[in-house]
Design brief:
By secondary structure, the protein is an all-beta fold. The chain is built from no helices and 5 strands. Strand 3 and strand 4 form a beta hairpin.
Length: 70
């Protein structure tokens, strides 16, 4: 079971419960191409994320961009 770690944390304003939208860097892609992640553990300089859809693979995130919501 691999952890999904983001190199951003509380020092950068990322806190537990923050939601992130994962997509290609293409404004024309459809909603079906998006994934949603949530911060489950936030530390000063990194955060542990989880995908909200447990049926998706970690490899589905390869090459994608996460945009965290305020």
């Amino acid at each position: 079971n691999q952890l999904l770690v983001a190199p951003l944390g509380t020092n950068q304003g990322l806190n537990n419960g923050t939601i992130g939208i994962v997509s290609n860097n293409n404004p024309d892609n459809s909603m079906k191409d998006w994934l949603v992640v949530s911060v489950i553990d936030s530390n000063p300089d990194y955060s542990i994320l989880e995908m909200l859809n447990p049926n998706r693979e970690m490899s589905d995130l390869d090459g994608k961009i996460i945009r965290f919501l305020d």
